[in-house]
């Protein structure tokens, strides 16, 4: 299995990879999202450490059960031949109706086949008023609006 674009990345292909990740995560489909990762992928997500696609699927299932009305934006931060760094923001609601914005950074490492073998994520959650939400769903085609600095 392969997942273009492939390393070594250029500015254009790194941006394509980031947008593909954003689009995939906005589906909120754990099985579909997990296919972008190697079978033996290794993750650190906040304080959780995951090994393999099955753990990724279980993690994402729990995540999107808790983080309702989830919508994400990612932005390329830096890249090398087979690594990409992104910053991101996503918004969601909890079961009690609270509204949140999550800010974070991710470091990714890819195989020659374009699958992510390693993902490290640092994330902070900030409560916001419902009227402060600005990420209401996937981007419209052609939208390249950068993330605001907040």
UniProtKB/TrEMBL annotation:
Residues 1-29 are annotated as: Disordered. Signal peptide: none annotated. Residues 1-10 have a biased composition (Pro residues). The lineage of its organism: Bacteria, Bacillati, Actinomycetota, Actinomycetes, Geodermatophilales. This is Nuclear transport factor 2 family protein. It comes from the Bacteria. It comes from Blastococcus saxobsidens.
